[in-house]
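Lab notebook, bench 4. We co-purified these components, and the gel suggests they stay together. Before we commit to crystallization screens, I want a quick structural picture of the whole thing.
Request: model the full complex, all chains together.
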Amino acid sequence: MSTFVLLTVTGVGLGALYFLIASGLSLIYGLMGVLNFAHGAFLTVGAYAMWFTESKLGGIAVLPRFLLGALAGLVVGGVFAALVELVLIRPLYRRHIEQVLVTVGLALATTALVISIWGNDARPVPAPAWLGETTTLLGAHIPNDRWLLIVTAVVVLAGLNAFLRRTRYGLIIRAGVENRAMVTALGIDVRRAFTLVFAIGGVAAALAGVLSNVYFSTVDPSRGTSLLIFAFIVVVIGGLGSLRGTAGAALVVGLVQQYANYYASSGLGDLSVVLLLGLVLLVRPRGLSASFA
Amino acid sequence: MSPRGGTGQEAEMPPPERRALLTVSDLHVHLGESHILQGIDFDVAEGGVTALLGRNGVGKTTTLRALMGLVDRRGGIRYGDADIASTPTHRIVRRGVGYVPEDRDVFAGLTVEENLRLAERDPEPRYSLVYDLFPELKQRAKQLAGTLSGGQQQMVAIARALLNDNRLLLVDEPTKGLAPLLVAEVARVLERVAELATVLLVEQNLGVVQRVARDAVVLDTGRVVHVGPAQELLADTAMVHRMLGVGAAA
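Here is the predicted assembly.
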């Protein structure tokens, strides 16, 4: 029982991480039709910005150092993503193949750049001691960082929902996912919404980078790429452009991965997720939820 | 359009007493391999309704989309004092051009109220006018636009264009697929709209054209084949039959 609880909470925590990456991917694809292979680079940049900031703030207490590092990670991730949209994606508007190529190239270049500056090895990232301790739930000792992952993802989901429902830009984004051309035909410069969606996606991915630093206690150059694969699977299963579908799919993928790794055999988790993807594509090719948020 | 009759393909100068709000010259559009618009010329005089007519597939919708900048186009489009042939869509709209597309294109996942709010551009959107014309939209404010009937969606689409003080409205087949009673309703609305703005109207229902249009431009396979007063054209049964086909003689 306690093992099952631990697996479940960890699976939900992992799902939370996937959701943070996949939400931006899903919004970007839904609004712009861009498959952003550079999304993992946003995560990596955010994660390294956090580690770098923390490493420069040696003299202060762990908690403010951690928080400042996290903040730096989010800011750098968001700014980087917005710049990518403005400089690389915008000039290739409506040229989807070229957009895919440029994002793939950027993903490779970012990883290579990080390796050339800070090397291939994982670097330890200091975090408050509480995150490394455990809380007992139904007899299971659950590492506290899982709670942080879950709570953060829930807050981000609620925040994104409120943003999409209550603000003018949210309205523009929801309408743009349905029919981008008609939004411009109402006199709205939809390209501003593009930049905004990239920035939001970049911050969410950087947040995933910061939290993955906590979860793994280290940062390494391949983190973004390896997590991005699962995020893409989540987005496809959830239905492109649907935030709620993305959240549900992230949960399912995280849990399936954990259960399969423990109950079947170690390493089977990744395979089972790919099998799940195949199954969904066969049964519901447009994803579990075809409508938007 | 010039009130002079004529079948020439050249752009005709408007008479001095009625200024052209929109002047289209040698406008070309290619979609994929097809040369949809092959150099069209016409004017839309300020005020009233100019009907853009022709059989199915001759390029009427493409003409409106080209004027809106929604498809790649080449040639001259003079609107007021400006050339808008290479202006992006949202800037054209901000110059006071409203668009009511074919098939309405309302946002199905947004409520009626959200659809209208999205269209707000002026500091004081004309909700009183819109709700006066379409009281039903007020009652259905919270309903998702995707669950409305075709006629109600058409009301939303027209309301979006009327919410702002537009100078020119491009209206694409507003009566398409509507029941006869609703067609009469739309015609009534168009008459009202024509008092507020200049309208370029694509319409297959010749009864509606007869009722609201002053000028007519006829397209055939990507070219202008006739310009002149709408009543003159519609009175000439042989010409209507030749230019608009049997199916269009409603």
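Chain B touches chain A at residues 68, 70, 88-90, 93-94, 99, 101, 105, 107-110, 114, 117-119, 121, 160, 164 (CB under 8 Å). Worth comparing against the SEC data before the next meeting. The two ends of chain B are 23 Å apart (CA to CA).
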